[in-house]
Amino acid sequence: MRILVVKSEKNLGAVVSRVTMANASAEVTARAEAAFRAVNPGVDFNRLKPGDVLMVPDTQDIGPGQGDTISGAVLSPVVENAKATLAQLKNRLTSAESDAGTERDTLARLLKSKGLQTAMSQDQSLKEDVRAVQSALAQEIKDAADRKKVLTTVFDQVAADLDHMRQRFG
């Protein structure tokens, strides 16, 4: 598979004109446009800007030599670097979440302390405030667990996508 870096083309028609033979028939142009759409899902071809990168479909309607080849020798180090950076980010987030968990545990212990319980029994306003903090803390613990699940899913998916990209282009 090859890639093409958009230069001045503003839409799919301009891209196809760049990569097909001059005076290509309407049928060839339509097939090339359909092939571009198929290998570039999610791309808004009406809003292309210089620097956008498109996959070039392997079809007879697009001239050989159009676009640049993605080679494993170039892609593998990029994927490995991205995976290493992803692992570092995951470690930092895990560490930060661990620190926050320690702070939540400390706060939970303080909220259950005998001195605070005694003060709460003598002050209804304090008791209400402590209950509100305990409720917020319980919600934060739940939210932290939810964040951990989401982050794990995201990191796993990104790693899988990087592996897929290396297999596809390497």
Structure classification:
mainly alpha
Distance between the termini: 10 Å
Number of separate domains: 2
Radius of gyration: 28 Å
Can you summarize the main beta sheet?
A: 3 strands, antiparallel
How would you spell out the order of helices and strands?
EHHEEHHH
Low-confidence stretches: none
Instruction: Work out the helix count.
Output: 5
How is the largest sheet built, in terms of strand order?
2-1-3
What's the overall geometry? elongated
Strand elements, count = 3
User: Which percent band covers the strand fraction?
Assistant: 5-15%
State the share of residues found in helices, binned by percent.
Answer: 55-70%
What integer is the average pLDDT? Answer: 90
What key attributes describe this structure?
single chain; 170 residues; mainly alpha; 2 domains; three-stranded antiparallel beta sheet; 3 strands; 69% helix; elongated
Q: What's this entry about, in short?
A:
The chain is mainly α and 170 residues long. It has helices spanning 12-19, 26-39, 72-111, 114-122, 124-169; strands spanning 2-5, 53-56, 68-69.
